[in-house]
Amino acid sequence: MAIKQVSFNRKALHEYLILEKFEAGMVLMGTEIKSIRQGSVQFKDAYVTFINHEAFIKEMYIAPYEEGNRFNHEETRERKLLLHDHEISKLERKVKLKGFTVIPLSLYLKDGRAKLEIALAQGKNIHDKRESDKEKDAQREIDKVMKSKR
């Protein structure tokens, strides 16, 4: 089972508190998967929505494939996510009732298929962001001291 990391959303870890992660497949066109294999993906402003009990990712940018000519895809089109029915209903319920959001964390190739890791997340306020930065700095200092004592 070969896994190749294509893209990772670093900003999501800073902006959101991650509660639960899910793996989703995606319905893609031929030129999209070729462009993904080249690593031409960005999901800085991407998010997941639910329409008619189906999950879709919006605002995910996949660059046009260079060899694609007139059959190339639209860069930021809405793409359907492939999740189990119980996962969709769980995510949909939490988004509607509790005000959470579903964001993409990473995109990777698993056995030649594109998989998107999505997360149920809650937005951090400024205080939470500062607190997590302090914790990271403290952990860095601890690691530094431990390394120097070895």
Overview of this protein structure:
The protein has 150 residues and is an alpha+beta fold. The protein has one domain (3-124): Small protein B (Small Protein B, Chain: A), CATH 2.40.280. It contains four helices and nine strands, in the order E-H-E-H-E-E-E-E-E-H-E-E-H. The protein has helices at 10-15, 30-37, 85-98, 126-149, and strands spanning 3-8, 16-26, 41-42, 47-51, 54-58, 61-62, 79-82, 101-110, 113-123. The strands form two sheets. It has a seven-stranded antiparallel β-sheet with strand order 1-8-9-2-7-5-4. It has a two-stranded antiparallel sheet with strand order 3-6. The chain is globular, with a radius of gyration of 18 Å. The N and C termini lie far apart (37 Å). The mean pLDDT is 87.
Q: What share of the residues does DSSP label as strand, in percent?
A: 35-45%
- Percentage of residues assigned to helices: 25-40%
The CATH superfamily title? Small protein B
Low-confidence stretches: none
Largest sheet composition: 7 strands, antiparallel
How far is it from the N-terminal to the C-terminal residue, by CA? 37 Å
Provide the descriptors you would attach to this structure in a database record:
150 residues; Small Protein B, Chain: A; two-stranded antiparallel sheet; 4 helices
Concise structural overview:
This protein is an alpha+beta fold and 150 residues long. It has helices spanning 10-15, 30-37, 85-98, 126-149; strands at residues 3-8, 16-26, 41-42, 47-51, 54-58, 61-62, 79-82, 101-110, 113-123. It has a single domain, classed as Beta Barrel (Small Protein B, Chain: A), CATH 2.40.280.10.
